[in-house]
Amino acid sequence: MKKNPYKVLGIKEGASYDEIKRAYRELAKKYHPDRYRNNPLADLAEEKMREINEAYDFLMKNAGGSYQYQTGYEQSYENSNASQSSHSQQYQSQQQTGSQYQSGYNTRYQYEDETELERKVRMFINSGNLNEAQRILDRMQARNAAWYYLQGLVFLRRGWYDRGYTNIQKAVNMDPTNFEYRNALNNLNQQYTGYRQNYYYRNSYHNNPDMCNLCMNLWCADTLCECMGGDLIRCC
Amino acid sequence: MFGYVEPDKPELKIREFDVFRGYYCSLCKSIGKRYGQVSRLSLNYDLTFLYILLDSLSTIPASGRMQRCMVHPLKKRFIVSSNIFAEYTSDMNIILMYYNLIDRWKDDKNILAGTGALAMKRAYKKAKKRYPEKCEAIESHLKHLTELEKNNCDSIDEAAEPFASVMRELFECGYIKDENERKTLGWLGYNLGRWIYIIDAYDDLEKDAGQKAYNPLISQYGYKGNGDGIGDFRESIKEKVNFTLTYSLSEAEKAYSLLGIEKNKGILDNILYSGLIARTDRVLRKRGRENEKESV
């Protein structure tokens, strides 16, 4: 059964194009595959993303258009069409580049002397079979950058972030030119700062100036002015 | 080790705060009804969060009424009416508390803990009868934890694993029928448990260093001595602990957003996006509960 696209995007029925777009952008950011890398719930996030994309495409084609029929239908429809296709293209292209990276790495590794074992480890990590991946890693002889990277990935998937971070950092230090390792490290840091900077916490009282602060500042300014012979606030 | 999961009170709406307290009271009442008055003392905020979370997965709106209760006899309060999840969380609360008391009794022969454990033994047996598999799993995790502590485990990841697994066990509530939801809840619980364990370790650095008790952070980052220079040590590992804690929370938040909860969204969002990180910052800045009023 198909879900109600408005519900999927969390908006009122008959929402305008702008509202739909805003809701879509918000949700796409929330469930973006980059955020769920190394997360055991990645498949669920992907499914959610697909749902959101479908709902968005559907609304952009149908409901949004008919709702805005009277108010400059042609124009807004064209606009939304353009942006819609660019949106989903963007998302698709991101996905494609993602898989291109992966396939690129895979092929490169096959040409270079990447062992069969590493390929297997990757496979097991992707399928979520961490114990098997760990067993192979333990069996491997070389402790090169690739090994530390893969070990780091296994730790991250397990929820052992301290060791995961250390291992990936080590991989980057050993092979600073490798794009994949650096990318993984950046992603870790991004998740960390991303959570700290969510709108809820950032906009709260924790670091906002409050009324007390304001009065204090005014009073200080007034005192300073009076020092210099002037006056900012007459009554005090 | 308990009571770290709490809302960021100044950010809550008054209505939301009433509902939050309504859930808390409901859980407290449910424990009292099922396990006797003494057991009510064992309730904590972590389990209240679990109760709200589980209850919010169903779409039936929370109902309740103004009631009096023994603890606050003077004023009537809004109390959410009890349901299957209240019963489940109160059972889990009893089990967890009992293990906690036993552990403290064994560790440092704390008379209070010993008496408490004795008083709660009957309640525990009753709860165990209801959830034998859960108890077994939790017991084996905690046994593992005792072993790690005995061997002075020098990895915070490894040391946090058993308690995180206990929390995963609690969050994977059997009354949630959808398998994906259960899995998501489990991951949320795991990361929250990990966060609780590590933040507790950081909070207790001074105490553990003074008593030469086991503390995973002391073992991993090699602090030697008995209390001198612990402040510098605390500062030196702050960034690393900060990363681990915040990353665990970010993973918990990812799991939470996959649940797509609408009911009680204000309260849960507040806890996940603000309460936990505010708490983290307070502990990192070593402003524990004693200074809470000031920050409010």
Key descriptive features of the protein:
heterodimer, A: 236 residues, mainly alpha, 12 helices, flat, B: 296 residues, 13 helices, 69% helix
Strand proportion of chain A, as a percent range, falls in under 5%
Uncertain stretches of chain A: 65-113
Biggest β-sheet of chain B, characterized?
Answer: 2 strands, antiparallel
Cα distance, first to last residue of chain B?
A: 23 Å
**Integer-rounded radius of gyration of chain A:** 26 Å
Count of DSSP-assigned helices of chain B: 13
Regions with little confidence, pLDDT below 50 for 5+ residues of chain B: 287-296
Question: Which oligomerization state do the chains in this entry correspond to?
Answer: heterodimer
* Helix percentage of chain A: over 70%
Note the beta-strand portion of chain B: under 5%
Q: If you average the pLDDT of chain B, what whole number results?
A: 87
Radius of gyration of chain B: 19 Å
* Helix-strand sequence of chain A: HHHHHHHHHHHH
Notes on the protein architecture:
The complex is a heterodimer of chains A (236) and B (296). Chain A is mainly α and 236 residues long. Helices cover 73% and strands 0% of the residues of chain A. Chain A has helices at residues 5-9, 17-30, 42-61, 63-67, 73-111, 116-127, 130-139, 145-158, 161-174, 179-196, 199-202, 211-227. The longest helix of chain A has 39 residues, at 73-111. The radius of gyration of chain A is 26 Å and the shape is flat. Chain B has a domain at 132-260. Chain B has 13 helices and 2 strands; from the N terminus they run H-H-E-E-H-H-H-H-H-H-H-H-H-H-H. Chain B has helices at 14-35, 45-57, 84-108, 111-130, 132-150, 156-171, 179-203, 205-211, 216-220, 230-236, 238-259, 265-284, 292-295, and strands at 64-67, 77-80. Chain B has a two-stranded antiparallel ribbon. In chain B, helix 1 crosses helix 2, helix 3 (84-108) packs antiparallel against helix 4 (111-130) and helix 5 (132-150) runs antiparallel to helix 6. The longest helix of chain B has 25 residues, at 84-108. Chain B is globular and about 55 Å long. Chains A and B meet through helix 3, helix 9 and helix 10 of A and helix 6, helix 7, helix 11 and helix 12 of B.
